[in-house]
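User: For my dataset I need records formatted as: sequence, then structure tokens, nothing else. Please produce one.
Assistant:
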Amino acid sequence: MTNRPSYGFDTLQIHAGARPDPATGARQTPIHQTTAYVFKDADHAAALFNLQEVGFIYSRLTNPTIAVLQERIATLEGGVGAVCCSSGHAAQIMALFPLMSPGKNIVASTRLYGGTLTQFSQTIKRFGWSATFVDMDDEAAVKAAIDDNTRAIFCESIANPGGYVTDIPAMAKLADAEGIPLIVDNTAATPFLCRPIEMGATLVVHSTTKYLTGSGTVTGGAVVDSGRFDWSKNDKFPSLSQPEEAYHGLKFHETFGELAFTFHGIAIGLRDLGMTMNPQGAHYTLIGMETLSLRMERHVHNAEKLARWLEEDPRIDRVTYAGLKSSPYADRAKKLYPRGTGALFTIAVKGGYDACIKLVDGLEIFSHVANLGDARSLILHPASTTHRQLSVEQQEKAGAGPSVVRLSIGIESIEDLIADMDQALTKATA
């Protein structure tokens, strides 16, 4: 199917990248459960390995099932290409890998998923990289944190766990002025609610594990390339602008133009880092994406109703949902996220840490799991789980203090969700 601008989101989420199987006529994308592919002849093999021809070599690099998913995600995000990998965390490393080298740094939001905070504050130091964490609402502080060694700004469109919404156009303008890319994690919003590339982002990353798949079945990640960044403008990004020794001096940006980052992600990232998505996992995600818009509408509907109910409940100190009129982010949300601000937010429970634990244990419909974006409603106490490696001060900055629980609102009956929360709060605050 040709992806024309006239096609709507609902059509593209089903058809983008997918064509009837030429061998069998199968309408659903087949699972190509294979490691390798037969070459036409020796010249064909050589051309593939030299990046002179696009095709399938080995499933660590490329796979037909995964290729369909990559095209679909890129289409929905408005990018020129995408590379899928094994998880959201893998996607973050994949996104940074072509940009970074020892001694270089990124400027990252303080409001990030706890695992991302740990990855950026601890793990990447083993590569000689570093991160400076800044409140992205303070543009002056973001600008001040950027130095000659900064190679990217990183934020989440809708922050995990608090559900705060980022002013992406403002961050994009700042990144452009500094000559560095803006990387936006769009996991919690999905391209149905937010298209960061249209707002100026250079790269978009996803944990496809979450809303894109939608049912908590398989892990995966994706890096989407806008194709708009000039990697050869200066010498900051030699992996993309300078000769690559592994390919006999090929220059990725010179050779592949707007697809430079995407080709680098496959030819270097997947080849050498090996964080490959499983084709069966890609199949699950493709099926999940066929109903993405329908699910997101219901997720948002339920989240808005439950957030309003919780805001009025005397057992709750505060609700962070940006879709509330009382939220300090309400105006930004209305302007930049007109379809809604997702289904992820936190509540602060009166009674602190102990009350949070009782609430988690007292719920019947909500599942206590370390995930989000499921069709099921989920709850987590970040301070004792995803953010437990952080100090209390860091937890508070991330919106995940001891009295806070994170809610990921599913697509169940909203009346049932309210009733379940009501009975559990009664137990927790008695």
